[in-house]
Amino acid sequence: MGLDLPQGGIYHISVLRRVFAFVFVLTLLFPATLRKVSLEAGPSYTRVIFTLSSRAKVRTGKIRYRDKVLLYIDFYGTFPGRIRSRYYYSSSPVKMIRISRKDRRRLRAVIYLSRLGKYRVFFLPSPPRWVVDIFPGQGELTLSRQLGLKIKKIVIDPGHGGKDSGCVNRELRLEEKYVVLDISLILKALLEADGYEVVLTREDDRFIPLSRRTAIANNSGADLFISIHVNWASNPSVRGIETFYLNLAADPEAERVAAKENEYSGKTLSQMKGLLKKIVMNEKIRESKLMARKVQISLVGNLRNYYPDVRDLGVRGAPFFVLMGAEMPSVLVEVSFLSNPQEAERLKDPLYRARVASGIYRGIEEFIKEVEGK
User: Using one digit for the tens of pLDDT, what is the confidence trace for 156-167?
Assistant: First the structure.
């Protein structure tokens, strides 16, 4: 039995086939449209995001033009949508982004930089976008490198303890003070295997006042101080990893985290900011920022090898009381959110904790290599 078509049905099918063929040819000729160009600036790196209608093949490279450093990314088979040809930025290493047609096959985006160290390019789906992360150059030598100092002793501070449980996930019966102690013990073993002398501010479940923690580091003659914590947010969907160094909080979120960790300091945030202004120009601030950046990049990168959805919340300065008295470069790492169901389950897993410790360890190693000029 044949298929009955309405009058003109064959004609309509023929037209549809031509339309589909035309759309297919257009797809081959113009597989992607560049829809948006955006920039996200942070203390650890600058991110340029190119949002497209669909994925496109790219090629990147860098060239020098007069006193400028140019980084380019070519999008093959891509045409510009309703975007500007030039984007200008004043308070960023990226000074300008220029979009132009390189030839019939390529659309080129040129990123004008004041300086360029390392950079990475990667693709993210939904929506399709190519991301360029730009890391600052070497800059001036740190004081440790100028003086030829060596790092031998490291103090690890497992946050909270005793009467101060820190964050508590009651559903999983998981307390921050135990999680961070476990991570700290693993990190201690990794560093000692490399020949470093390692001191823990606490090795069991006991309460140590915040001021006493940095005193332990100072009295032991430590070269580095790393405080390890677990994060918490009222919104359970918030997740990710962030690393802090001592500085005036630059945004409300950094102040929120600092206020949470400073709860047992006995001082108000305004009092601590007053104290901090006296030391904000100290050399250790700059080295702390460098160490925070190394730890953050390493920790996020290591975890993404096993958990690709790990979110990088970046590096920020904030007035943490536990870091304020330290006489050496010091950072505070918030390794995950105990308030997020997925990250809480991961924090419960000993393997995840070991991978967190390994990521922090590699970041410390990278920092030591740079400051010692290895």
Answer: 999 999 999 999
Within the chain, strands assigned E span: 32-41, 46-52, 58-65, 68-76, 78-80, 86-88, 94-101, 106-113, 119-124, 129-134, 153-158, 168-169, 174-175, 197-200, 224-231, 241-246, 312-318, 330-337
Cα–Cα distance, 272 to 262 (Å, whole number):
10
Quick one: 231 and 327 in the same domain? yes
b/e per residue 301-310 (b: at least 16 CB within 10 A) = ebbeeeeeeb
Q: What is the pLDDT of residues 80-116, one digit of tens each?
A: 888 899 999 877 788 899 999 888 788 999 999 877 6
Pairing outcome for strands 241-246 and 312-318: parallel
Residue 193, domain extent:
143-371
* Sheet hosting strand 241-246, strand order edge to edge: 197-200, 153-158, 224-231, 330-337, 241-246, 312-318
**Measured between alpha carbons, how far is 73 from 98 in angstroms, rounded to an integer?**
11
Specify the number of domains making up the chain.
2
Closest by Cα among 177, 32, 179, 173 to 105? 32
Domain boundary among 134, 165, 196: 134
Task: Report pTM.
Answer: 0.58
CA distance 232 to 239: 9
CA 75 to chain centre: 26
